[in-house]
TrEMBL record, chain A:
<feature type="transmembrane region" description="Helical">
    <location>
        <begin position="118"/>
        <end position="142"/>
    </location>
</feature>
<feature type="compositionally biased region" description="Basic and acidic residues">
    <location>
        <begin position="269"/>
        <end position="281"/>
    </location>
</feature>
<feature type="transmembrane region" description="Helical">
    <location>
        <begin position="82"/>
        <end position="106"/>
    </location>
</feature>
<keyword id="KW-0472">Membrane</keyword>
<keyword id="KW-1133">Transmembrane helix</keyword>
<feature type="transmembrane region" description="Helical">
    <location>
        <begin position="197"/>
        <end position="214"/>
    </location>
</feature>
<feature type="transmembrane region" description="Helical">
    <location>
        <begin position="35"/>
        <end position="56"/>
    </location>
</feature>
TrEMBL record, chain B:
<protein>
    <recommendedName>
        <fullName>Cytochrome aa3 subunit 3</fullName>
    </recommendedName>
</protein>
<feature type="transmembrane region" description="Helical">
    <location>
        <begin position="24"/>
        <end position="45"/>
    </location>
</feature>
<dbReference type="InterPro" id="IPR013833">
    <property type="entry name" value="Cyt_c_oxidase_su3_a-hlx"/>
</dbReference>
<feature type="transmembrane region" description="Helical">
    <location>
        <begin position="57"/>
        <end position="78"/>
    </location>
</feature>
<feature type="transmembrane region" description="Helical">
    <location>
        <begin position="131"/>
        <end position="156"/>
    </location>
</feature>
<feature type="transmembrane region" description="Helical">
    <location>
        <begin position="176"/>
        <end position="195"/>
    </location>
</feature>
<dbReference type="InterPro" id="IPR024791">
    <property type="entry name" value="Cyt_c/ubiquinol_Oxase_su3"/>
</dbReference>
TrEMBL record, chain C:
<feature type="transmembrane region" description="Helical">
    <location>
        <begin position="170"/>
        <end position="191"/>
    </location>
</feature>
<feature type="transmembrane region" description="Helical">
    <location>
        <begin position="9"/>
        <end position="32"/>
    </location>
</feature>
<feature type="transmembrane region" description="Helical">
    <location>
        <begin position="91"/>
        <end position="114"/>
    </location>
</feature>
<feature type="transmembrane region" description="Helical">
    <location>
        <begin position="203"/>
        <end position="221"/>
    </location>
</feature>
<keyword id="KW-0472">Membrane</keyword>
<keyword id="KW-0812">Transmembrane</keyword>
<feature type="transmembrane region" description="Helical">
    <location>
        <begin position="57"/>
        <end position="79"/>
    </location>
</feature>
Length: 291, 196, 247
């Protein structure tokens, strides 16, 4: 980790030209390429996730929990190909979530807190991918691939999928609390304190969703106004906030151990200025998006 | 919670816009918005089944609810006193008020649990009646905020205890949280118990 | 620098584990001629009710249950090697660490479905078939973290810019090829007829599992080479240090 330690001190000049050439330049010279790579992977993943879950398979917002067995069979029929192709894409790309967990764990290593926080978050959220998303993909794939299966079994698969997906709470709850505690204790100003408190709001949604295990219909069911919609809005705000704050963190990163410096306003080398502008080492690269 | 950085911030800034960290005010605003969303959903359901809601609501004990509210309001008063005392450097008195606040919180929680047990004994559980679903949800999520409030009070006490810490900013931040919980209760109380 | 003990033990778990996995693989009657997704529920039920099959299903799956997480110790050695690379941040090693648990966990879930199906073979054929489907789909699609792991290793090697990089560059290319070989298995739900894309077909079964096997062998050998070289270098450094102190 000592190589190119002086690079941050000097201004690097990115060549203009085609996006490919710029990506190649950042890949070779940008000292923050690992961080930017992880950040762009997060962006790419949430785009894929939105397309697959909200647009293709219509598993978000979740379908009705009160469907009878024949309704469930009809639901599987309606989304047969979308489920099989969409979740195929998820099986290929769900591994991208590790970039998010790694970058967030890194943010905690940059703080003035015990290393245990970062590792705890990494383990919690790496674990979360299986019950929190992949089980749904597996079980709905099994349901969709044999449309002539006994409707009672289809209904069981349907419940299994959505309850495991919506009802996986503990890892996200504890993970958010770990991140919150780290941010509130941190003296390096890696994240603003309000985001620490926003972690608590996110953790509380994991409590609010728990009635989904009890109710078959109404606002507390797995697609209910309170258990799903309001929680989803909070989660959306939370996700948007941390994605932009992580970007902010990478831009401010100085590879030191003390307080993270603030961004200097009105820099001559605006990061998103195209063309032949002089680029600081902290200008975002697009190298991650390329892979 | 950091002391040194906060102290620097206190020294650096001229007149703070709000007492405590503005970040906690953001939290208060955000949680109020989330609760408002819950209330809107509740009021909508109530409009749909007005009669049924009124019948179930009649089973609630208004006196316990009023008692809850009074206890929590008093706890907010002692919290405010705690901040005031800490501001003038009377840390011993501030500590006493912090503990007083915590004990009012415990009384509130105790009477809440008593009320819940009473309603469940009467046959109104979380899933048995629509009004009571909302009732248990709203009071439960509020009680959870109160439990977190005890952690916040712990931080305040921790700050007040040692002369090396004593960040007025953090004490006030904790107070903002406590008042938010109190404020949310007043809303929950008026919507669940009072509005007919 | 004092060397911590036990690294070689973790490394040499790989061949021992490979042996166990291969024997469990051939013990399971549904793998040598992989079961077809076209089998009717009665045929699937008959497969589990056949007493000669049943013992082998249980035996092999209990063996897998014990050892399917057995790769994790060796995978952590790769995490440690990534930490030695000339990176600016530990992000890639965290990515690798995040991947290590995911693959085995998914395999473990598939394993549970097989064992549950075999626990009560007298269950209604439809139910046995569903458990069998769950097992096969979980087993076949258990690639997300394996793909991510190979891509992360490849990226880490490409970014390891020092005169003597930890892994040789071809290891990175090899990992990308393995990642690509695992991709078709993700779409197994689409092919319910026998063919190259079915779960017993060429791509999702033979290519995927061969890729995993080759990956284990190649990475095991490469990791061994790297670790032994590292130890030799550290030893000579230590000798020099002692000599320097004596002089």
């Amino acid at each position: 980790m000592s190589a190119a330690a002086t690079e941050t001190e000097t201004l690097l000049e990115s060549p203009g030209g085609s996006p490919l050439r710029r990506i190649a330049w950042h890949w070779r010279h940008n000292p923050k390429r690992e961080l930017w790579g992880a950040w762009f992977t997060i962006i790419a993943f949430y785009n894929v996730f939105t397309v697959v879950f909200f647009i293709m398979t219509h598993t978000q917002p979740p379908p009705k929990p009160w469907l009878d067995a024949h309704g469930v069979v009809r639901w599987f029929d309606g989304y047969h190909n979308a489920l099989l192709i969409g979740f195929g894409v998820m099986f290929v790309l769900t591994g991208m979530t590790v970039a998010q967990n790694a970058l967030i764990a890194y943010s905690m290593r940059r703080m003035s807190v015990h290393p245990g926080f970062g590792y705890a978050y990494l383990v919690l959220y790496s674990l979360a991918g299986v019950p929190g998303s992949l089980l749904l993909c597996i079980v709905l794939t099994v349901g969709a691939m044999r449309p002539d299966r006994d409707p009672a079994l289809m209904s069981w698969l349907y419940d299994f999928a959505f309850l495991s997906y919506v009802g996986t709470m503990g890892v996200f709850l504890v993970g958010s609390l770990v991140w919150m505690t780290a941010i509130l204790l941190d003296k390096n100003n890696v994240f603003p304190k309000w985001f620490g408190y926003l972690n608590l709001c996110n953790a509380l949604t994991e409590v609010v969703v728990s009635p989904a295990w009890i109710f078959h219909r109404g606002v507390f069911a797995w697609n209910g106004l309170i258990a799903w919609w309001i929680d989803m809005v909070v989660f959306g705000v939370y996700t948007g906030a941390f994605i932009s704050l992580l970007r902010n963190m990478i831009q401010r990163e100085d590879f030191g151990t003390g307080p993270l410096p603030e961004l200097v306003p009105n820099k001559p080398n605006k990061p998103d200025k195209p063309g032949k502008a002089k680029r600081g080492p902290d200008s975002p690269s697009t190298m991650g998006a390329a892979r | 919670m950091t002391t040194s950085s906060v102290k620097e911030a206190e020294a650096g800034k001229a007149v703070p816009f709000v007492p405590g960290q503005p970040d906690m005010w953001f939290f208060a605003l955000f949680e109020t918005l989330v609760f408002t969303a819950y209330f809107v959903v509740y009021m909508f359901a109530r409009m749909q089944h007005h009669e049924a809601f009124l019948q179930s609501q009649a089973k609630l004990s208004l006196s316990i609810g009023t008692f809850n509210t009074l206890v929590l309001l008093v706890s907010s008063w002692s919290m405010a006193r705690c901040v005031k005392e800490a501001r003038v450097g009377a840390y011993r008195s501030a500590l006493t008020n912090a503990f007083l606040t915590a004990s009012f919180g415990v009384v509130f929680l105790g009477s809440k649990i008593y009320e819940w047990v009473r309603e469940i004994r009467l046959g109104y559980g979380f899933a048995s009646d629509e009004f009571f679903s909302y009732y248990f949800f709203l009071t439960g999520i509020h009680a959870l905020h109160l439990l977190i409030g005890f952690v916040v009070l712990g931080v305040v006490v921790h700050q007040l205890r040692s002369p090396e810490r004593r960040s007025q900013n953090l004490v006030e931040t904790g107070a903002v949280y406590w008042h938010t919980v109190d404020f949310l209760w007043v809303l929950v109380f008026s919507l669940l118990y009072v509005v007919r | 620098m004092k060397r911590a003990d036990g690294e070689l033990i973790l490394l040499w778990t790989v061949p021992a584990l490979a042996l166990i996995w291969i024997s469990a693989f051939f013990l399971f009657p549904g793998f040598i001629h992989p079961m077809s997704p076209e089998m009717s529920s009665n045929e699937v039920a008959a497969f589990y009710r056949d007493s000669s099959n049943l013992d082998r299903i249980r035996g092999s799956m209990i063996l897998f249950n014990w050892f399917c997480v057995g790769m994790i110790p060796a995978l952590t050695l790769i995490v440690m090697q990534i930490r030695r690379m000339a990176h600016r941040t530990p992000v890639l090693s965290y990515c690798m660490l995040g991947c290590t648990a995911g693959g085995p966990t998914l395999f473990l879930i598939a394993n549970l479905f097989w064992l549950i199906a075999a626990f009560r073979p007298e269950r209604a054929p439809d139910q046995t078939q569903m458990l069998n489907d769950l097992a096969w789909v979980t087993f076949t699609t258990a690639v997300p973290f394996l793909i991510a792991q190979s891509v992360v290793i490849a990226l880490a090697i490409y970014l390891d810019r020092q005169p003597e990089p930890v892994f040789r560059p071809w290891v990175a290319h090899f990992n990308l090829v393995v990642a690509a070989a695992l991709v078709p298995a993700a779409f197994v739900g689409l092919a319910m007829k026998d063919g190259v894309m079915a779960w017993n077909g060429l791509l999702p079964f033979w290519v995927k599992n061969a890729a995993i096997a080759v990956w284990i062998v190649v990475m095991g050998v490469e990791l061994g080479r790297v670790i032994y070289r590292q130890r030799a270098a550290e030893e000579s450094e230590a000798v020099e240090a002692v000599a320097g102190a004596g002089a």
